[in-house]
Amino acid sequence: xxxxxxxxxxxxxxxxxxxxxxxxxxxxxxxxxxxxxxxxxxxxxxxxxxxxxxxxxxxxxxxxxxxxxxxxxxxxxxxxxxxxxxxxxxxxxxxxxxxxxxxxxx
Length: 106
Description:
Largest sheet: none
Number of strands: 0
Radius of gyration: 22 Å
Order of helices and strands: HHHH
Oligomer: single chain
Distance between the termini: 63 Å
Helix content: over 70%
Shape: rod-shaped
Number of helices: 4
Number of domains: 1
Strand content: under 5%
Protein backbone atom coordinates (compact mmCIF):
# COMPACT_ATOMS: atom_id res chain seq x y z
CA UNK A 1 0.00 0.00 0.00
CA UNK A 2 1.36 3.40 -0.96
CA UNK A 3 1.71 5.93 1.82
CA UNK A 4 1.14 9.63 1.53
CA UNK A 5 4.81 10.27 2.23
CA UNK A 6 5.76 7.93 -0.64
CA UNK A 7 3.62 9.96 -3.03
CA UNK A 8 4.87 13.24 -1.58
CA UNK A 9 8.51 12.40 -2.30
CA UNK A 10 7.82 10.66 -5.60
CA UNK A 11 8.56 13.82 -7.61
CA UNK A 12 12.06 14.06 -6.12
CA UNK A 13 12.63 10.37 -6.74
CA UNK A 14 11.65 10.60 -10.39
CA UNK A 15 13.92 13.59 -10.89
CA UNK A 16 16.91 11.66 -9.56
CA UNK A 17 15.96 8.22 -10.87
CA UNK A 18 18.83 7.82 -13.31
CA UNK A 19 21.44 8.44 -10.63
CA UNK A 20 19.64 6.86 -7.70
CA UNK A 21 18.10 3.73 -9.19
CA UNK A 22 21.09 1.50 -8.49
CA UNK A 23 21.56 3.03 -5.07
CA UNK A 24 17.89 2.55 -4.26
CA UNK A 25 17.98 -1.11 -5.25
CA UNK A 26 21.04 -1.74 -3.07
CA UNK A 27 19.45 0.16 -0.18
CA UNK A 28 16.21 -1.82 -0.42
CA UNK A 29 18.15 -5.08 -0.48
CA UNK A 30 20.20 -4.11 2.58
CA UNK A 31 17.19 -2.71 4.42
CA UNK A 32 15.25 -5.91 3.84
CA UNK A 33 18.07 -8.07 5.17
CA UNK A 34 18.52 -5.76 8.17
CA UNK A 35 14.85 -6.00 9.10
CA UNK A 36 15.01 -9.78 9.14
CA UNK A 37 17.39 -9.86 12.12
CA UNK A 38 16.41 -6.82 14.16
CA UNK A 39 13.47 -5.09 15.76
CA UNK A 40 13.29 -1.91 13.73
CA UNK A 41 10.65 0.58 14.77
CA UNK A 42 8.18 1.58 12.08
CA UNK A 43 8.42 5.02 10.57
CA UNK A 44 6.07 7.61 12.03
CA UNK A 45 3.20 8.62 9.78
CA UNK A 46 3.68 11.86 7.88
CA UNK A 47 1.02 14.55 8.01
CA UNK A 48 1.50 17.50 5.69
CA UNK A 49 1.20 20.99 7.08
CA UNK A 50 -0.83 21.97 4.03
CA UNK A 51 -4.55 21.54 4.79
CA UNK A 52 -5.42 21.05 1.12
CA UNK A 53 -2.90 18.23 0.74
CA UNK A 54 -4.08 16.65 4.00
CA UNK A 55 -7.67 16.68 2.80
CA UNK A 56 -6.75 15.41 -0.66
CA UNK A 57 -4.76 12.49 0.72
CA UNK A 58 -6.85 11.87 3.85
CA UNK A 59 -7.45 8.20 3.04
CA UNK A 60 -3.76 7.49 2.47
CA UNK A 61 -2.81 9.34 5.65
CA UNK A 62 -5.46 7.47 7.64
CA UNK A 63 -4.13 4.18 6.25
CA UNK A 64 -0.59 5.21 7.21
CA UNK A 65 -1.71 5.75 10.81
CA UNK A 66 -3.58 2.45 10.94
CA UNK A 67 -0.58 0.60 9.48
CA UNK A 68 1.71 2.33 12.00
CA UNK A 69 -0.47 1.18 14.90
CA UNK A 70 -0.34 -2.41 13.62
CA UNK A 71 3.40 -2.23 12.95
CA UNK A 72 4.25 -0.73 16.36
CA UNK A 73 2.41 -3.61 18.03
CA UNK A 74 4.53 -6.05 16.00
CA UNK A 75 7.60 -4.03 17.00
CA UNK A 76 6.70 -4.30 20.70
CA UNK A 77 6.30 -8.08 20.37
CA UNK A 78 9.67 -8.26 18.63
CA UNK A 79 11.30 -6.27 21.43
CA UNK A 80 9.73 -8.59 24.02
CA UNK A 81 11.04 -11.65 22.17
CA UNK A 82 14.50 -10.10 21.80
CA UNK A 83 14.57 -9.25 25.49
CA UNK A 84 13.70 -12.85 26.37
CA UNK A 85 16.32 -14.18 23.97
CA UNK A 86 19.00 -11.81 25.27
CA UNK A 87 18.15 -12.63 28.90
CA UNK A 88 18.48 -16.37 28.19
CA UNK A 89 21.76 -15.78 26.37
CA UNK A 90 23.12 -13.70 29.26
CA UNK A 91 22.15 -16.47 31.68
CA UNK A 92 23.96 -19.07 29.56
CA UNK A 93 27.05 -16.85 29.23
CA UNK A 94 27.11 -16.31 33.00
CA UNK A 95 26.98 -20.06 33.55
CA UNK A 96 29.76 -20.60 30.99
CA UNK A 97 31.85 -17.94 32.71
CA UNK A 98 31.31 -19.67 36.04
CA UNK A 99 32.50 -22.96 34.53
CA UNK A 100 35.50 -21.18 33.02
CA UNK A 101 36.44 -19.66 36.37
CA UNK A 102 36.03 -23.10 37.93
CA UNK A 103 38.51 -24.54 35.44
CA UNK A 104 41.05 -21.88 36.38
CA UNK A 105 40.73 -22.71 40.08
CA UNK A 106 41.62 -26.37 39.52
